[in-house]
Amino acid sequence: MKQRSLLSSKRTLAEMVDPSSGEVAAADYVELGEQPSSPKSEKYQKVSVIPLVFLIFYEVSGGPFGVEDSVKAAGPLLALLGFLLVPFVWSVPEALITAELGTMFPENGGYVVWVSSALGPYWGFQQGWMKWLSGVIDNALYPVLFLDYLKSAIPALENGLPRTVAVLVLTVVLTYMSYRGLTIVGWVAIFLGVFSLLPFIFMGFIAIPRLNPATWFIMDLDKIDWTLYLNTLFWNLNYWDSISTLTGEVENPSKTLPKGLFYALVLVVFGYFFPLLIGTGAVPLNRELWTDGYFSNIAKMLGGVWLLTWVQAAAALSNMGMFLAEMSSDSFQLEGMASRGMLPELFAKRSRYGTPLVGILFSASGVILLSWLSFQEIIAAENFLYCFGMIMEFIAFVKLRVDRPAESRPYKIPVGTAGAILMCIPPTLLILVVLAIASFKVMVVSTVAVMIGLALEPCLRYSERKRWLKFSMNPDLYDLRSPYQ
User: Smallest Cα–Cα separation from 132: which of 318, 349, 364?
Assistant: First the structure.
C-alpha cells in the first residue's frame, strides 16, 4: 500500500510522542502510513512462507548431521528423549517469542531492535555483538562438518594443507551465493532440505525388518558425558530467533513469520528424532562409533554404497544450506543495526542483488578466522555467547509486555504477564546449566569477547562524535524506538 508522507499526516510526529516513554504508539504508525520495516527492501523480491520454512530449518537444524554425539554421550534412550522433549523446554518458547516480537517489530535487526526498545541502545548493541559473534562462530562449523563427511571418500581432506585450502574455497563459494540474493538462498534451501531428508526416509523403509526396539531403551547412567550431551542438544535446537534479523525481507511477516516458525519446528523435530530412531534401532549399538559422520556408516550397513553416497552428499549439501542461512541472518543483522545508526553506514549499503555486501564480507572474514577451532570448541563457544544473548531477549520480552501491553502485536502468545514470566523460566534454567558446564577455556574466551563488546559501543559513539566514521539513520525507520537519533 502506498505510504503517506509524514508531512501530509494530520498529526505531527511530536504530537504522537508519549512523553513518559518517548515512544510512538502503534496506532500512530497506521495513521502515518509507516511501518518499521525497511522500505528500501521493498524493491527486492520478498521471501514467501515455503522458502522461509526452509531458511528457519537451516538456521536451526539442516537435518540430523551433528546429532550423533548425543548417542555417544548418553546412549539411545536419552538421545531420543532429548530431541523429543527438550524442544518443549527450549525451542517452543524461543519460537513463540520470535513470532511475537518479530511481528511487533517487522524489520531487519530482529532481536537487536527488541532489546534496544526494552533496555536501551547500549544493551541493544551488546545483544547484536554477542549474537553476531555467536552466529559467526556457529557458521565456522559448517565447512568443518562438510569436510568430516567427505574425508572418508577423500582421505586427503582429513588434515593439513588440503583441508585448509578446502575450507577457504568452500567459504568463498558459499559467500558468493549469499551475495547473489536472499530469494535464491531461500529456494536453494528448499532443494537442499528435501534432498537432505529423503535418504533417511529410504533408510526407514529399509531398516524396518532389522529394527530392535529394545536398543532404544538402553541407558547407562555411569557412562554419561553430560557436557557433550547438553551442548549437542542445545546447539541443535537453538537459533530460532535468527530469522528475525531479516524479517524486513519477509512477505507479509505478521502472518508468514508465525506460520514459518510452526512448520519449521515440526520439520526440525522430525528431522532429528526419526533418523535417531532408525539409526539406534537398526544397527548393533557401539556408542564410541557415534561421532560426526556416523550416519553415513549406518547408511552403508543398511543400503550399501549407493545409500552411503547419498547420505554423504546430503550431509555436505546440508552444511552448505546451514552456512547460507546463517550468513544471510548475520549479514542482515548488521544491515539492520547500521540502518538504526548502531554501526557505520557502510554496513547498510546493499548490492544490486539486495544483499548487504559489507555485512557478508565481514561475516565471512570471521568464519575464516575461526575455522581453526575444533568441533567441540566451536559448539561450546557459540553456546556460551548465545546464552548471554538469550537472557537479554527473555528480559526484553517480559519488559515489553509490562511497559507496552497495548501496543500492536499481530501475533501474541496467549498468556498474560505472569504466563510470559513463567514461560521463560525453564529455558533460563537450561541456559544456566549450559553456562555452568562450559570449560574454563571457553569461559575465558567468551568473557573476553563480551568485554570487547562492552568497550566497542562507546568507541563507536566517540568515533561518531569525532566524525571519524560516518553513521546515518534511515529516515524511513525514524521512530522513537530507534536507538540513535
Answer: 364
- Taking a C-beta distance cutoff of 8 angstroms, is the pair 52, 263 a contact? no
C-alpha closest to that of 62 among 315, 276, 386: 315
Find the length of the chain: 485
Region of 354 (left: φ > 0; alpha: ψ -120 to 50; beta: rest) is: left
* Alpha helices, DSSP H, located in 208-292: 226-237, 253-282
Q: What is the pLDDT of residues 384-426, one digit of tens each?
A: 788 888 999 999 999 999 999 989 999 999 999 999 999 999 9
Hey, what CATH class is 47-477 in? mainly alpha
The rounded distance, in Å, linking the Cα atoms of 443 and 431 is 14
Domain boundaries, the chain: 1-34, 47-477
pLDDT in tens, 35-68: 444 444 456 678 889 999 999 999 998 889 889 9
Which residue from 333, 351, 349, 337 is spatially nearest to 181, judged by alpha carbons?
351
Scored b (16 or more CB within 10 A) or e, 249-282 reads bbeebbebbbbbbbbbbebbbebbbbbbbbbbbb
C-alpha closest to that of 408 among 36, 25, 110, 109: 25
Strand bridging mode 17-18 / 23-24 = antiparallel
Distance, in Å, from the CA atom of 451 to the CA atom of 441, rounded to the nearest integer, reads: 16
C-alpha cell at 148: 568430516
DSSP codes, 138-162: HHTHHHHHHHHHHTTT-GGGGSHHH
Coil, helix or strand at residue 340: strand
DSSP state of 17: E
pTM of the model: 0.82
